[in-house]
Amino acid sequence: QVQLVESGGGLVQAGDSLRLSCAASGRTFGAWPVAWFRLAPGKEREFVAAVRWSGTYANYADSVKGRFTISTDDAKHTVYLQMNSLKLEDTAVYYCAGSKGLTVATVTSAYEYWGQGTQVTVSS
Questions:
Q1: pLDDT per residue over 6-32, tens digit each?
Q2: Angle 36-97-71 from CA coordinates, rounded to 5°
């Protein structure tokens, strides 16, 4: 059974940085994709970033490109989301997701495994 556990969320001010972590257990993902999605109040869950567990083929939402960086540490079975220059609109619950597919997808339906989420709140 695959488990994904996020951590690192919190309350920060606009312009600050935050790093989220997602620890995976239950199997090694190899070349499988892993992603971050977020859910803001009143909105649908949206794609943030994804990458192969090997660290290749990173893909980002336009809204975070240049500010967020997704990375993996295969030895620690952990995926990170470094978030810089945070904006008010980045406030959301951030979820880690893992896929058994081959495509670094941007849709929720492509991911079979989900963490419980971690809250990120950006204040002015």
A1: 999 999 999 999 999 999 988 766 678
A2: 50
